[in-house]
Structures are given as structure tokens and as C-alpha cells.
Amino acid sequence: MAIEYLGLSSINGPLVVLEGLQDASYDEIVEMTVNGSQKKMGRIIEINKDKAIIQVFEGTEGMALRNTHTRLTGHPMEIPVSVDMLGRTFNGIGQPIDGLGEISSDIRLDVNGKPLNPITREYPRNYICTGISSIDGLTTLIRGQKLPIFSGNGLPHDQLAAQIVQQASLGEDSHEEFGIIFAAMGVKYDVADFFRRTFEESGVSDHVAMFINLANDPVVERLITPKVALTAAEYLAFEKGMHILVILTDMTSFAEAMREVSSSKGEIPSRKGFPGYLYSELAALYERAGIVAGRPGSVTQIPILTMPNDDITHPIPDLTGYITEGQIVLDRELHSQSIYPPVSVLPSLSRLMKDGIGKGYTREDHQDVANQLFSCYAKVGDAKALASVIGEDELSPIDKMYLNFGKEFERHFVGQDPHDNRTIIKTLDIGWKLLGMLPREELDRIDTKLLDQYYKPSPVTEEGLLKEE
Known about the structure:
Number of strands: 21
Radius of gyration: 25 Å
Number of helices: 12
Helix content: 25-40%
Mean pLDDT: 92
Structural class: alpha/beta
């Protein structure tokens, strides 16, 4: 028989304290009735003897110490899961908000997930094509990888996320099932509407499940949103054999919500006011990506976070970098030059890229072309630094070639139209065309056989720029 507790001991922001509890457990869901009619849901986040601290998802507005009845449910937060979730839109705690009714399913899963046995993990192989050259060519996304995007306020990470959702695929030759889970935390209404409208107009919404937590939604809901999204992803991947790409934006909102709740609990803050368990909370989310032995699907993550003041040493990007396998960094200077997407090539990397590209995956020249483009673009930086000291006119002919290469590289390879969905073959061909601006002897990172097969000098103008076709 369920026991109902009358009244509360205290209320502090999104948290309430209830005393006299029996047989309560950590992470247990409670149902709260306010004034005999209003229903709210909460989660036990701390227990001390018979006292419990409860997070209230819908916020504590209207709640008082004497007008609230609380009932323990005896289980953690669970959501119904089904393949029918694709094509649907949910709020931050997994409730449908698209007017199409509830998800009908007998299967309910704990949103906290189950830890994966490291021994059962398989090494990520094969790639996911995003249609974006700077990602596919130089920081390739591998199935089962977690590859974050480090952005900043005002940079077009929302547009980039929408483009990835529209264009992502398993490649032209794959017949495997593919789906996308898109979770937005703390976004404004117009941003949420932009995502929803973009997916519908592009015709991809039928294989996308959206979880939207708006900026005016309760802050506690923000902590649950990524867990709900990843629970749906794990079911579709490991039970239904699909390859699932999960996009989480913005992890900074998630971390700031955690800081706010931690402050309400009176916990001692760590760096920048964030709780000391920020690392373990982020790891608990990011480590839910991967491939499990004996299961046909995979979960791949692209967390997006905005770096406060563009500071890559801030705790959120800093800790994210420790946990994930690389990063894609957006650059404000490139954005100011109207280059989209403004991916900063040199600090970006994908640590698993080498094992999911090349012959049998993309093309045999992929790794060499990527290495050579990185090397040449690094020399562009050296030429720019020298030009700032002695002037561009005093540079040697080869340094001037590198400067021109850098301009064309940013314009044609990094930069592309938001609706330009490039195949990996087209991306590599653009790379060879750019390398053709330089003398063959400068290309020291490419195998001679590949040079014989693919290299040919590119026609350039008198200014040293590529001639328009």
C-alpha cells in the first residue's frame, strides 16, 4: 500500500525537503499534489536518515509547506520507448508536445541508464558522413564516437547543428537503419522553432526524435533532458539495431543548471562555482556513446557547448575535452570573415578518425590528404606571422603560395554553402585541387603512389588564386 506524506519541511528554489520518510531510495520519483489538484513530479536527490531532498521538475511555484501531498512511486524516472519516437517532439522530461498523443509501449526504461561493461565495448569503426568538408575531411566522425563542438556566444552552432541533422548519413553505399536524437537544453522559443521548422521543411523529421527544454522551462528539467534523450537512443541502437546520432545542445546550459541546483542545496562550490562532481556528471552522459559487442547498432554523440568568453580552459570545455575523443572548434575570426562553417582547423581533431577512414571506408588517399592539408595550413600561419613583420611583398615566392593557399582553403574547403551536402569523394577532390596550388615537392606527407594517381597542378590566376570553373 502506497504511503502519502502530508506537508513539507522546507522549500528552497526548485528543491523541497521532506522528513519522516520510510523506505525511500536515491533517484526515486515522487508524485506531488498541490492544493488537491495540481500534479507535479519530483526526484529524490539526497537522503539522510528519514530526511530527503527532492528536485521538483515543474518548479515549486504555488507550493507551500502545508498544501502539498507527496507519494513515493518506488521506482526511478522511466520513459516509454518505441521506434515510434522517431518523428515526434517531446519536452525535456520525455512527454509528447506535438499533439499526437502518448507513446504506446509496454517497455519503460530507467533514464539513468545502465553502465556499459568496458569489456563488452567494441572499438568504433566506419564513419558518419555529415556533408561538411571540414568535418568529414579533417575531423571525421566515427560511429560510436563522442565528438563535441566547442562554440561561443553569437557563433552559428545552431545553424551547424541543424545542417548536420539534415545531412548526416551512413554514406551512399550503406543500407543500415539510421536515426537522429536531437536534444536542446535551455534554448529560446525562436531557436526551438527554428530547429522544428528546419527539420520539417527539409523532410528529415521522420527519422528525428526531438527533446526540447525551453529557457523558461524549470531549470531542474534541464538536468533530465540529456538522460531522457540518451535512453531513447540506447533503446533504438542496442535493441532495434539502428545507428543513432545524438546531438546535445547546449551542454553549457546543462552545467549551469547543475550549478544552480548545487547552490540551492548549499554544496561547497569548486572551479567557477560549479560543483565538484561536474566531471562525473558529464562523464555519465558522454560515456553512454559507443558500440556493444553482439549488438548491431551504435550510439554516436555530438555534444555542443558554448565556451564562456571563448575560454577553452573554462571547466565545461576543459572537462569535456578529457572525456571525449577530440573536438571541433568554431573560430570567431573566421565567422567575422563570413566563412561558414567557421571551423578552426588546427585546434580541431578526431582521435578515432584514423580507424574509420581509408580503403574500404572512405577512399585510400583520405588520411594522407588530411595530413597534408593540416601541414600546409600550419605553414600558412607561419607565413602570415612573417608577413606581419616584414610585409607581404617581401615574402619568398613559396611563402606567397602558402598565403594564397590559405585564402582558398578557407574559402573553398572550410567554407561552404549551408545547403551544400558534399560527399566524401567531393571533399577529397576539393582537397587535391587545393594541394595542386603548391609545388609537388612541398607535399611531403603523401605517399608517392597517391601523388602519381591524384596530383595535378591547379590553374591559378595572376594573383595566385584558384581560377573559377
